[in-house]
Amino acid sequence: MVRIGVTGHMNLAPDTTRLVSDALRSHLAKAADDVTGVSCIARGADSLFAEAVLEAGGMLEVVLPSRDYREAKVKPDHAEQFDRLLSKAARVRVMDFDHAGREAYVAANEAMLSSVDELVAVWDGESPVDAGGTAGAVTDARRRGVRVVVIWPEGAARQ
């Protein structure tokens, strides 16, 4: 079984969603048939990855940064997708934090990175390296020797 985690931008431009979804599906098609995707199912890259994993017939594991993540961070226009993905998860792990915040995001990244063979980063390469963010997760993965695959299709943009 191949375990693949995801990190990536939440603020993808509308036209970029299709480009990233297609690239994720293409990448997952190259993976072994038995794939487990690990995602925080945040808006943008995380949810697009989770959708692609399920479409590929893989198993989804969700890591939530805090007990209040759904109420505190999931916006109304993302709630339906978030709830649907959460209901399809084979496993849900909630970090031991009451409230979402930088420390909780770092813990969620740690939980994800410590359990995967590969990290897919939907990343434009321009983010600052901050704890809990996309660039920070890529840096941590590389430091650990986790294979990193950057997906940023030509024409992709952030809002």
TrEMBL record:
PANTHER family: UPF0398 PROTEIN SPR0331, UPF0398 PROTEIN YPSA. This is Uncharacterized protein. InterPro entries: YspA. The lineage of its organism: Bacteria, Bacillati, Actinomycetota, Actinomycetes, Streptosporangiales.
